[in-house]
Amino acid sequence: MFCYQCEQTIGGKGCTKFGNCGKDAKVAALQDLLIYQLKGIGFYGQKLIEKGEKIDPEIQKFMMDASFSTLTNVNFDPERFIEYLKEAQKIKEILKFKTKGIEDNIPCAAEYILPDNEDEMLEDARKAGIMYDDSLDADIRSLRQTLIYGMKGMGAYAHHAHVLGKMDETVGEFFFKGFSAVTNDNLTVDELFNLIMKFGKVNLKCMELLDRANTEINGNPEPTEVVITKKKGPFIVVSGHDLRDLKELLEQTECKGVNIYTHSEMLPSHGYPELKKYKHLIGNFGGAWQEQQQEFDDIPGCILMTTNCLQKPRESYKDRIFTTSIVGWPDIAHIEEVNGKKDFTTIINKAIELGGWTEDEPEKKIIVGFGHNAVISIADQIIEAIKAEKIKHFFLIGGCDGSRPGRNYYTEFAEKTPKNTIILTLACGKYRFNKLDFGKIGDFPRLLDLGQCNDAYSAIKIVLALADAFKCDINELPLSMILSWYEQKAVCILLTLLSLGIRDIYLGPTLPAFISPTVLQVLIDKFNIKPISTPEEDLKTILGS
Ligand code: SF4
Ligand code: SF3
């Protein structure tokens, strides 16, 4: 196997025998073969799009879901990948039939026929491997992989928008354009780079679509206090990013005496009016995803994993963790949608049987819910505070968490920011420091949480609104982006920020292994992207003192 798609890749180079995430060589091979199939589908689909034909929305959905399934920490179940592979073959044949007559330059991925036998699939997967063609130019490989990882991230966001009833043709069609492009040997480094910038803009559309889906259905997040301590009674902890799953579970647990806790990226759910109205959405449990094996150990309740990031379940909670949607782990109970509904009876009954915590902990709270609507509604006060020099600078500390010790940088950075600066947080990197007290500036808490990584659109909307208010370029704002990456959703967000021309982003804890030295130099030259150094040094560079 060879995989270098995430930040915890072994030795900062690539996982070759077993993934640090828990992915084994078999699943890695099946995922490679699935991406190969998506390239083949992309080729035929793009030909149809160029002829002015529409692609069936079900096929578009398959492209987003299949891409999402290969994202880090989502699905580890070989059976599910074999199903996807078979479905991919059927779709490819349908599209191939519709494009009858194309004879030249058909890529191997398009011509490939999936065998029935699993062993043969695993054998074939070798030629789908990232490093299979060792004569491929390093920069072309780097840019192709960057685009594929971006599309995996967008697959996740498009999936979330789709389950809430929203689809967009430009977004749906990009999967064909992008997967087709990575099979095209004629594309130059410049052409691939330009396509990646176009992708960044398409991903912005996708994030806007998801924001609309979340807020039209659940209302605009509003500042809300969230209990972060345990309450007596049976419970289910909901992890991941899927607000529809959370809502369905809240509906089905009403009056059942089962408390619902958010975990990790589900924390911002407490700010949505249509979710917080459920009194048994009782609080938030635990920290970021990489703490789950300790936090779930012997837990007297159930866990529902709705999306990434799932780690290998320990024996002590294997019988009480459930997956749903695209997420999967072999031999872990999976709740599937049937006729547009999910039946959560099994997990609810199991939670009741386990009995839950036996007493209340002394209560502690934090505040969430500063999405774009909440922040923009107090824009006048923020602008006044900036003009009066009460607020000197904004730091967007956003992105993923992970287990690398270098990630302490983000906590230390937040702690060292001057008292007259505001910290905006986004995604799961904040769980290391969001329970600390940063104080207030006037009426504003110094730490304002914008939401999940899925809410990156909020950050972009706020930045654009501030630039508009000050009649300046976004790069002239007193705002710095200090980003941490781990998986491929962070890749697509970063590409969107770059496509908007945002410069001087600080990126860590390490740089992606799939970025070649030449591509990195292009990013430095065009966007002045900077690897993080120390909090002191970076703060000094940013604030100039
Ligand atoms: Fe390694 Fe990350 Fe790939 Fe898992 S997803 S195999 S940890 S590079
Ligand atoms: Fe986190 Fe997995 Fe990236 Fe949603 S939950 S940001 S890592």
TrEMBL record:
<feature type="binding site">
    <location>
        <position position="309"/>
    </location>
    <ligand>
        <name>hybrid [4Fe-2O-2S] cluster</name>
    </ligand>
</feature>
<feature type="binding site">
    <location>
        <position position="265"/>
    </location>
    <ligand>
        <name>hybrid [4Fe-2O-2S] cluster</name>
    </ligand>
</feature>
<protein>
    <recommendedName>
        <fullName>Hydroxylamine reductase</fullName>
        <ecNumber>1.7.99.1</ecNumber>
    </recommendedName>
</protein>
<keyword id="KW-0560">Oxidoreductase</keyword>
<keyword id="KW-0479">Metal-binding</keyword>
<dbReference type="Pfam" id="PF03063">
    <property type="entry name" value="Prismane"/>
</dbReference>
<feature type="binding site" description="via persulfide group">
    <location>
        <position position="400"/>
    </location>
    <ligand>
        <name>hybrid [4Fe-2O-2S] cluster</name>
    </ligand>
</feature>
<feature type="binding site">
    <location>
        <position position="241"/>
    </location>
    <ligand>
        <name>hybrid [4Fe-2O-2S] cluster</name>
    </ligand>
</feature>
<dbReference type="GO" id="GO:0050418">
    <property type="term" value="F:hydroxylamine reductase activity"/>
</dbReference>
<comment type="function">
    <text>Catalyzes the reduction of hydroxylamine to form NH(3) and H(2)O.</text>
</comment>
<dbReference type="InterPro" id="IPR004137">
    <property type="entry name" value="HCP/CODH"/>
</dbReference>
<comment type="similarity">
    <text>Belongs to the HCP family.</text>
</comment>
<feature type="binding site">
    <location>
        <position position="6"/>
    </location>
    <ligand>
        <name>[4Fe-4S] cluster</name>
    </ligand>
</feature>
<keyword id="KW-0004">4Fe-4S</keyword>
<keyword id="KW-0411">Iron-sulfur</keyword>
<dbReference type="InterPro" id="IPR010048">
    <property type="entry name" value="Hydroxylam_reduct"/>
</dbReference>
<keyword id="KW-0963">Cytoplasm</keyword>
<feature type="modified residue" description="Cysteine persulfide">
    <location>
        <position position="400"/>
    </location>
</feature>
<feature type="binding site">
    <location>
        <position position="3"/>
    </location>
    <ligand>
        <name>[4Fe-4S] cluster</name>
    </ligand>
</feature>
<feature type="binding site">
    <location>
        <position position="489"/>
    </location>
    <ligand>
        <name>hybrid [4Fe-2O-2S] cluster</name>
    </ligand>
</feature>
<feature type="binding site">
    <location>
        <position position="487"/>
    </location>
    <ligand>
        <name>hybrid [4Fe-2O-2S] cluster</name>
    </ligand>
</feature>
<feature type="binding site">
    <location>
        <position position="21"/>
    </location>
    <ligand>
        <name>[4Fe-4S] cluster</name>
    </ligand>
</feature>
<feature type="binding site">
    <location>
        <position position="428"/>
    </location>
    <ligand>
        <name>hybrid [4Fe-2O-2S] cluster</name>
    </ligand>
</feature>
<keyword id="KW-0408">Iron</keyword>
<feature type="binding site">
    <location>
        <position position="15"/>
    </location>
    <ligand>
        <name>[4Fe-4S] cluster</name>
    </ligand>
</feature>
<feature type="binding site">
    <location>
        <position position="453"/>
    </location>
    <ligand>
        <name>hybrid [4Fe-2O-2S] cluster</name>
    </ligand>
</feature>
